[in-house]
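Subject: design request, 251 residues
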């Protein structure tokens, strides 16, 4: 039986928009009948090229998404899984501010049968301290899932981190909304991806995870070009093909 836990992190630039040409036709080539079964794009709007083929996971990425058309998109979401804030500790959002917004705007989204993901913080000490503070402040009405990010070069260290976070928050299945090797060596990236993906697929307290990222250009100097899931011309890298098709994955 196929274990469906992999979420495609489909960059917003892949969608045609004002002032830029995307590669929306590539979405037609994504296999959703295997382990890949959901899509996220760090935004509130669903990529039209998805055409209803898989669930979309909207995100309240930052404070700007709490009003206007973005908030209307979130408010209209029903029977969904909604992400709340992306690395808020690096965006100047305090745990108290996030908790206030959580109770005022986010928790009521459950009235439409939505499930909620906590803010996804980085795995460094600052990120861990932030999420610990937030989870304490919202303990009376906590998230359905614990959102996490992890970047590094050691697959065993990644697995250890996930185990430690599960031990700290055993009631909250993990939603790993960003994950990747930062090694510049492609072989090392493949080994990291295979080892971590196989662990996550087999682990009952992991709900869903997404490898970063399906985009034509490298996001910044931190992430690795060797971990890209899409080439500059929009075609899929071999790592993307493996994530779509292999379970268990092989080196």
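Subject: RE: design request

Done. Sequence follows.
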């Amino acid at each position: 039986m196929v274990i469906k836990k992999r979420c495609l992190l489909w960059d917003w630039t892949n969608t045609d928009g004002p002032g830029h040409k995307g590669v929306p036709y590539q979405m037609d080539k994504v296999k959703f009948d295997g382990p890949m079964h959901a899509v996220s794009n760090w935004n509130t709007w669903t990529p039209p090229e998805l055409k209803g083929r898989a669930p979309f996971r909207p995100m309240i990425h930052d404070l700007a998404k709490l009003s206007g058309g973005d908030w209307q998109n979130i408010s209209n979401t029903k029977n969904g899984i909604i992400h709340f804030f992306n690395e808020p500790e690096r965006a100047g959002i305090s745990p108290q501010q996030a908790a206030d917004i959580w109770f005022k705007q986010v928790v009521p989204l459950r009235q439409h049968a939505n499930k909620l993901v906590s803010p996804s913080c980085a795995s460094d000490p600052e990120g861990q301290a932030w999420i610990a503070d937030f989870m304490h402040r919202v303990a009376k009405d906590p998230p359905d899932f614990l959102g996490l990010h992890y970047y590094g070069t050691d697959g065993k260290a990644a697995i250890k981190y996930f185990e430690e976070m599960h031990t700290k928050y055993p009631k909250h299945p993990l939603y790993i909304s960003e994950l990747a090797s930062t090694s510049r060596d492609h072989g090392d990236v493949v080994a990291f991806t295979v080892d971590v993906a196989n662990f996550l697929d087999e682990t009952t307290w992991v709900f869903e995870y997404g490898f970063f990222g399906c985009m034509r250009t490298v996001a910044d100097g931190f992430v690795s070009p060797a971990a890209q899931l899409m080439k500059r011309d929009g075609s899929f890298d071999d790592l993307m093909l493996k994530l779509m098709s292999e379970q268990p994955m092989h080196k």
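The beta strands are 6-9, 36-40, 59-60, 81-84, 115-117, 146-152, 174-181, 206-211.
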